[in-house]
């Protein structure tokens, strides 16, 4: 189990989940593996006031009210729709909730323009149908159908990218709580067991949320996840993800706190610039999310490990920032160039520290790409 590229949360945190289950004496809705309070504790981590014998790590960073509303929704008969900008941790929160509640976060359907009703209901194993005819044995249940049968959480990623046919099929699943299989003469209804619910995610940049039918909207509670703008929480997220990454790659490398500050500061600056930009050409194409910051740091760490002397330097960080954010040429490069001249240069004179190296690394990267 340890040699998966990315273990699902219920595997990665199996030991914590076992322990929480063993001390959990709170009332559990349906067949939930943990009580709502324990689910919250698993997601947000323990505080001293919880009086536990051990620490539970914080895994999702954000306001507890979002987590509580999400948990309450899942105990109701409505589905949960997490909406937000790219990289705000929607999918990660969905995975953590499914892991804590059902010990299975892998019953997932990915919404795309090509998603069909079969993907959320069932399909057939054609060779078995030819050999033995249509029966429950030759049927292939979708992840959603499986989650209904087992009374666990099913997930639907990027709901708004799927077609209205698929969304309509979902309405009937969420309201009737069963799927009928008209091809079969008997045993032709799959009923949802108590505990079944759906966590869907939608990207607010896809602009599809408003287009969801009112019938579907009524069957979901919406929880809007804002972009983290608080530097302290953002630093925690970046640190948390980076330490996981280092462990996964078995890399021993310290991320100097001043470089983390530089990364956070430059993203904050670039976001402020994007907010005051008047046209799309003056805005980086990137959403400048926390996830993107993690990506920049990850590249810089890997670069230092593979091609450097295993010390993370400001030049490398600047190079990976420019490389990741310069997607459109010349627009993005021009924006970065302006930022480097207008902000990084004066700051490097005033603040010193690692900024001069950051200035130099960025200049070189911009020159190379221009
Ligand atoms: N609030 C957060 N707490 C913990 N990790 C976070 C948070 N926000 C982002 N991350 C990390 O950022 C990465 C991207 O998050 P995730 O895939 O969940 O974003 P998303 O909102 O689903 O984005 P998209 O709309 O692009 O699918 C993950 O590795 C996640 O752990
Ligand atoms: Mg996602």
Describe this structure as you would to a colleague.
The strands form 3 sheets. The chain has a 5-stranded parallel β-sheet with strand order 2-5-8-1-9. Strands 3-4 form a two-stranded antiparallel ribbon. Strands 6-7 form a two-stranded antiparallel sheet. Helices cover 51% and strands 11% of the residues. The chain has 370 residues and is α/β, with parallel strands linked by helices. It is globular, with a radius of gyration of 24 Å. α3 crosses α5 (90-102) and α15 (331-351) runs antiparallel to α16 (355-369). β6 and β7 form a beta hairpin. The structure holds adenosine-5'-triphosphate (ATP) and magnesium ion (MG). Residues 90-91, 157, 201 line the site of magnesium ion.
Give a quick rundown of the structure.
With 370 residues, the chain is α/β, with parallel strands linked by helices. The chain has helices spanning 9-12, 14-23, 36-44, 64-75, 90-102, 117-120, 126-132, 143-150, 164-176, 214-218, 231-249, 257-276, 290-307, 314-325, 331-351, 355-369; strands at residues 79-84, 108-110, 122-124, 139-141, 153-157, 178-180, 189-191, 197-203, 220-225.
Give a topology summary.
Elements lengths: L8 H4 L1 H10 L12 H9 L19 H12 L3 E6 L5 H13 L5 E3 L6 H4 L1 E3 L1 H7 L6 E3 L1 H8 L2 E5 L6 H13 L1 E3 L8 E3 L5 E7 L10 H5 L1 E6 L5 H19 L7 H20 L13 H18 L6 H12 L5 H21 L3 H15 L1
Parallel strand pairs: 1-8, 1-9, 2-5, 5-8
Antiparallel strand pairs: 3-4, 6-7
Helix pairs in contact: 3-4, 3-5, 11-12, 11-13, 13-14, 14-16, 15-16
This protein binds adenosine-5'-triphosphate (ATP) and magnesium ion.
Adenosine-5'-triphosphate binds next to helix 5, strand 8, helix 11 and helix 13.
């Amino acid at each position: 189990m340890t040699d998966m590229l990315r273990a699902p949360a219920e595997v990665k945190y199996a030991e914590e989940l076992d322990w929480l289950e063993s001390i959990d004496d709170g009332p559990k809705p349906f067949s939930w593996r943990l009580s709502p309070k324990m689910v919250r504790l698993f997601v947000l981590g323990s505080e001293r006031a919880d009086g536990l014998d051990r620490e539970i790590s914080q895994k999702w960073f954000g306001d507890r009210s979002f987590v509580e509303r999400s948990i309450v929704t899942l105990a109701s008969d409505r589905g949960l729709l997490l909406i937000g900008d790219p990289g705000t941790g929607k999918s990660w929160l969905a995975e953590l909730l499914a892991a804590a509640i059902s010990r299975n976060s892998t019953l997932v359907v990915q919404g795309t323009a090509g998603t069909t009703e079969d993907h959320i209901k069932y399909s057939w194993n054609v060779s078995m149908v030819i050999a033995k005819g249509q029966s429950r044995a030759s049927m292939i249940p979708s992840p959603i159908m499986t989650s209904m049968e087992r009374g666990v959480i099913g997930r639907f990623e990027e709901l708004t990218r799927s077609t209205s046919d698929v969304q309509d099929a979902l309405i009937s699943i969420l309201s009737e709580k069963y799927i009928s299989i008209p091809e079969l003469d008997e045993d032709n209804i799959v009923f949802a067991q108590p505990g079944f619910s759906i966590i869907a995610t939608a990207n607010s940049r896809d602009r599809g949320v408003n287009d969801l039918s009112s019938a579907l909207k009524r069957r979901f509670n919406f929880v809007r996840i804002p972009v983290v703008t608080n530097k302290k929480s953002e630093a925690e997220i970046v640190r948390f993800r980076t330490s996981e990454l280092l462990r996964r790659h078995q890399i021993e490398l310290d991320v100097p706190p001043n470089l983390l500050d530089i990364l956070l500061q430059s993203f904050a600056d670039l976001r402020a610039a994007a907010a005051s930009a008047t046209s799309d050409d003056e805005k980086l194409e990137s959403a400048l999310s926390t996830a993107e910051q993690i990506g920049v740091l990850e590249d810089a760490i890997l670069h230092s490990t593979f091609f450097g002397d295993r010390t993370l330097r400001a030049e490398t960080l600047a190079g990976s920032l420019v490389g990741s954010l310069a997607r459109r040429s010349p627009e993005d490069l021009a924006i970065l160039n302006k930022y480097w001249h207008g902000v990084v240069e004066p700051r490097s004179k005033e603040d010193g520290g690692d900024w001069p190296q950051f200035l130099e690394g960025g200049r070189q990267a911009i020159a190379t790409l221009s």
